[in-house]
């Protein structure tokens, strides 16, 4: 099978030019002006932009949680991702306390393998770091292609590890060229505020927000950076939301430390005024919570300053019925929101169109940097000869609106209901196969491939 894409404007992290792209089987084999080649299929991309397929490095599909599970599984979640121009996702395997990493890997692969439409990889969330876990790290990196590990500084008693375990985890991962990522919020401070608010009868979703003030995130981010600096491990802060935490990243870079940061569209585009809507605010109950307008400005600037490298979604949807578990107690609302489908279109419309970021920066934060940081480059994350033919053909002028009525995520609400966006993912190609064209799906579950990732090469 071969595809020739003609006359598109190709935008990567580095380049911006008009050319033809020739795809043979799953790879890009030629790029050039007016290619005179025969192809099984020819796509005219005049007036369209061509981006590398999106990579979302932070999703939770079918994640068991509070007696339920996030409402998109690997099939529905990767399908929605494809409609939105994301061809590869990285999900988090979560180790259960007392269990091995290997058994958790088997559990997650059992749910994912054969069920995904888009390509996928895994990070490991290590929740029980002991001598047995320690002995498994090397094989996870070198044999299973899982080179990034996440630690939680919050959720004491379930997910959290303490600072000594964190130091040992970092030290071990550093030996084998892996990366440590973190949910950086101070769990003890948050537990204090949650308990205090509940004892005062303050139970609405607003108090979820008020239990996680900015300091809980900035303190933990600074502490994490210092621990990573001591061990020398490459570090990555997931879902960074606020100015205070960003300032700690800036400080770390002054000592030439490798600490990457990720934010999400919801932190760039939504703010805490949404917690003023009574129980409806449960839709935006996530951790960390939405922040202030000044934080949005800091985050956009942080992207342009090169302090924030990636924009992921932290896609973790729950149905409204499930959110109701916390109707009388904000601490029982399942944390998370849908987002996997609209990352690309929102960032283009709100970022590129509004002059906050360049189109090259857009390619960088939606695809290239994740491929580089997480050991998939240049197989993924760019448009180049020899790379996987993962391509988004994008109409920069098409206007449409976001709604739960039309989205493909298995969630009965949208965080962006009614938002008008300019720019639409028209044709999505994954490894040389048209996956979506003009809102129609052309791949089935099982097409998605597990991506064994390489070590984290520090090439940013
Ligand atoms: Zn997450």
Describe the structure.
The mean pLDDT is 97. Helix 4 (163-175) links the parallel strand 11 and strand 12. This protein has helices at 74-83, 101-112, 131-142, 163-175, 187-199, 206-210, 214-231, 243-254, 265-269, 293-304, 320-323, 343-352, 359-373; strands at residues 2-11, 16-24, 27-32, 41-44, 49-52, 54-59, 64-65, 68-69, 86-94, 119-125, 148-152, 179-183, 234-237, 259-263, 310-311, 391-401, 420-430, 433-437, 440-441. Helix content is 31%, strand content 24%. By secondary structure, the chain is α/β, with parallel strands linked by helices. The longest helix is centred in the middle third of the chain and has 18 residues, at 214-231. The structure holds zinc ion (ZN). Zinc ion is lined by residues 58, 60, 314, 316.
Compose a concise summary of this entry.
By secondary structure, the chain is an alpha/beta fold. Helices cover 31% and strands 24% of the residues. The site of zinc ion has 4 residues, from loops.
* Unreliable runs: none
Helix content: 25-40%
Q: Care to count the β-strands?
A: 19
Described by the principal axes of the CA atoms, the overall outline is globular
Q: Give the N-to-C terminal Cα separation.
A: 34 Å
Structural class: alpha/beta
Strand content of the residues, in percent? 15-25%
Oligomer category: single chain
